[in-house]
Design brief:
Strand content: 5-15%
Distance between the termini: 51 Å
Largest sheet: 5 strands, antiparallel
Number of domains: 5
CATH architecture of the largest domain: 2-Layer Sandwich
Strand order of the largest sheet: 1-4-7-6-15
Number of helices: 24
CATH class of the largest domain: Alpha Beta
Number of strands: 22
Structural class: alpha+beta
Low-confidence stretches: 57-83, 608-622
Length: about 750
């Protein structure tokens, strides 16, 4: 008799729909093996089940936190994207509103141990990710998750991603009401819904219980729901302010208010109507403009609102719209232990520092939320097993993940706090500094992401190490600042809403490419991601720690009483801040300092050194270098104009910087091009866009389209948002021009 399969073992423990999903996917994997499914079709299929391809780095993690040899039967894993469809990849697992049970924690640890590299990664959408997963294992992995009520369905792909919510929902001292049951109901309602299957791109939803904290970050979401209570006919009614069209990505958009108050029993049909309008009218051919933020910007919020209202009138009734409302009052977390005061109990070493940053007093007297500060969002399977034991003893199933890549234990009694701290410390999860400058958010970057340009995790690990070493002496003014790092321009690390953000790019130095990070200052994490920062300048990766010290030291020295970091940035002005960065922008000769040409956490040179560039190519490179500086200077002037409230000048300056960048590239082939905009656009299109020389593997012609669109559709009276947006687009176009010149003129990456 053969051993039972996981399908057999779990047959009666899986929800029927999720079991069926796993069966279907298993069949599709087999058909792909046989070459009976086209790769493009299969790619969309696996993405809708949370299965990503990933980048390999010789099977090593280079983040300063974990270094573990990987031994997979598939053989050698070389650096760079692996294009084979069945190479080990990444599995994303949905965790609606971040809520976890003990049983789910233990299954996640099992999966990390058995199928992955023993590491669980918490994402900025409260999901979990497991890396180095073989695709043949994913159907069984999905079955094991389904047996404890978890799914990977639509964790990726062009559909509704994980629905997030504030990890303090239900215990927050400032909330309008607990948004947990609403976020849970929304996730279930839209999962696999027919009206969310025809999107051009992904769609992200968030719930927030209060207006002024970071909470659910509703301002940066495709659909955001902010809890509000309103008096209607003399009675207090629950509802939500509805925000649409927000998003970070390459060019961030602030969400706009669709409706100031939608009653709780109308949010499901409202979400369905919004989805239908997006599916029908959203861009499908050009993925670069396929998010709902572009549709809202194109139509205007008034017209979008009208379309949603018309759609609502045609929706067929669905009992699920309100079925969950009758059970909302039944939703109530239960503490695992009674509330007992601390009463002078002796405190262990390090407890007070940890308590000040990692403990939040709940609205329920005598109980607390403890934040577990996960370095880079990672914990091992062993730590997860032990954490499940701690949860079983002290909090039960009241565990959640956070959008800052941490985990929280809710309902810890006052008297249990010292013991919980000691038990967390024993498994290396007792670090203080949660929510402070030490608690850095980072995307995977070049470790595993195919789009990574620079090592965001390597830099985050180094900054965390340096900041932790001097944590006790850090000035109070900077302790609460947020640092967020992305490995490329896509803002997966949420650099736009950080006080101090960085995103990866590269620059050319002779025959080498040097990892750089753009410095982004002035974003706002609070007020539900209230405003976005702007890039100031690109700095070599190795100089970023010194840049951080320089900026924070100047802020501490200069700030006026109670002045926020955002206020200081605006008051100082970008000219002065840029002058702080200038000393760190230079690149030494390779022979003088070869370590400078390595990324953080990586012992290898970022580029190979023997390109064999002749004199002619050298002259061309020199010409480009001179020309591109003009574009970057013009771009910086547009930033200054934006600061000064000169929106038309800022917008025009950003457009001119794009013209100058395009001309710099054209002159590598055609030195006599004029400065006339039409000539520049024509030559650029003919020589670099139509030939696809400007295209890279992932963004393709995306950033050139920003340039063409502005040239063909100049605004008549640009406001602040329009100027801000074009400045962002111009920055990306300039970066793409750098990258194109490097490819065309023979700089070879390792």
């Amino acid at each position: 008799m053969t051993d039972k399969t996981w399908k057999d073992k779990l047959q009666n423990k899986m929800p029927e729909d999720l079991a069926h999903e796993a069966d279907i996917f298993e069949g599709q994997v087999e058909l792909r093996k046989q070459g009976k499914i086209d790769e493009k079709v299969f790619a969309e299929t696996r993405l809708r089940r949370g299965v990503y391809g990933q980048r390999y780095d010789n099977g090593q993690r280079h983040d300063g936190i974990q270094t573990r040899e990987l031994n997979f039967p598939s053989g050698d894993l070389t650096k760079g994207p692996d294009t084979s469809w069945d190479a080990p990849g990444m599995q994303r697992i949905k965790v609606p509103y971040g809520g976890l049970t003990i049983e789910q924690m233990e299954v996640l640890a099992d999966l990390a141990d058995e199928y992955s590299d023993g590491i669980l990664h918490v994402t900025t959408r409260q999901d979990f990710q497991l890396h180095y997963i073989h695709i043949e294992d994913t159907p069984d992995l999905m079955r094991r998750l389904a047996s404890v009520g978890m799914t990977t369905r639509e964790a990726c792909g062009n559909s509704v991603r994980n629905v997030t919510a504030c990890p303090l929902a239900g215990v927050c001292r400032d909330q309008a009401f607990d948004v947990t049951p609403y976020s849970h109901a929304m996730a279930n309602f839209l999962l696999g819904h027919d009206d969310v299957q025809d999107f051009g791109r992904k769609f992200k939803i968030a719930f927030s219980g209060c207006e002024h904290h970071a909470c659910g970050l509703v301002n940066m979401h495709d659909l955001g729901l902010l809890a509000r209570v309103k008096e209607v006919d003399g009675e207090q009614k629950r509802g939500f302010a509805i925000f649409v069209g927000g998003g970070l990505g390459t060019v961030p958009h602030q969400a706009q208010v669709l409706n100031e108050f939608v009653p709780e029993d109308e949010i499901m049909p409202m979400s369905q109507a919004i989805s239908r309008v997006f599916a029908r009218l959203g861009e499908k051919k050009n993925r670069n403009r396929a998010r709902i933020k572009f549709l809202v910007a194109q139509l205007g919020i008034d017209e979008f609102r009208r379309l949603v209202e018309e759609e609502l009138k045609t929706l067929p009734h669905d009992d699920r719209w309100t079925a969950y409302i009758d059970h909302i009052d039944e939703y109530d977390e239960t503490p695992a232990r009674p509330s007992v005061p601390l009463n002078g109990k002796p405190l262990p070493d390090g407890y007070q520092e940890w308590y000040e940053t990692n403990v939040y007093q709940q609205i329920q007297p005598g109980y607390n939320v403890v934040t577990i500060n996960l370095p880079l969002g990672d914990l091992t399977s062993t730590q997860m097993y032990k954490l499940a034991d701690i949860a079983r003893e002290y909090v039960g199933d009241n565990v959640r993940t956070t959008v800052e890549q941490n985990m929280v234990l809710r309902w810890i009694a006052d008297a249990d706090l010292p013991t919980v701290y000691q038990e967390l410390k024993a498994i290396a999860l007792g670090d203080p500094g949660a929510g402070t400058i030490v608690d850095i958010t980072s995307c995977p970057g070049t470790d595993t992401c195919k789009l990574g340009i620079a090592s965001s995790r390597g830099l985050a690990g180094e900054l965390r190490r340096q900041l932790s070493a001097k944590n006790a002496t850090l000035p109070e003014a900077i302790k609460e600042l947020k640092i967020k790092i992305s490995g490329c321009f896509n803002s997966c690390g949420q650099h736009h809403v950080a006080d101090i953000g960085f995103f990866g790019n590269s620059r050319r130095a002779g025959n080498y490419k040097v990892p750089h990070f753009q410095v982004v200052l002035g974003g706002q994490w609070k007020e539900n991601a209230g405003s976005y920062g702007l890039a100031i300048g690109a700095v070599p990766a190795k100089n970023i720690p010194d840049v951080l010290d320089t900026i924070t030291n100047r802020y501490v020295a200069d700030r006026e009483r109670t002045e926020t970091f955002q206020g200081w940035v605006m008051r100082l002005g970008r000219k002065e801040i840029k002058s702080l960065l200038d000393p760190f922008m230079g690149i030494p000769d390779y022979e003088e300092n070869p370590l400078f040409f390595r990324d953080w956490g990586d012992s290898r040179t970022y580029t190979i050194d023997d390109i064999g560039v002749g004199e002619c190519a050298g002259e061309v490179v020199s010409l480009f270098s001179i020309e591109i500086i003009k574009a970057e200077s013009q771009h910086f002037d547009s930033l200054v104009a934006l600061d000064e409230g000169k929106f038309a000048a800022a917008e025009q300056g950003a457009y001119r910087s794009m013209l100058l960048a395009a001309r710099a590239l054209i002159r590598t082939q055609y030195p006599d091009v004029t400065m006339e905009p039409n000539d520049i656009v024509r030559e650029f299109r003919t020589r670099f866009y139509d030939t696809q020389l400007f295209f890279d593997r992932y963004a393709r012609g995306k950033f050139a389209e920003y340039f063409f669109n502005r040239h063909e559709n100049p605004p008549t009276n640009p406001d602040k948002n329009a100027a801000h947006r074009l400045i962002e687009e111009a920055q990306l176009f300039i970066e793409a021009t750098h990258a194109a010149e490097q490819r065309i003129n023979g700089v070879i990456t390792s």
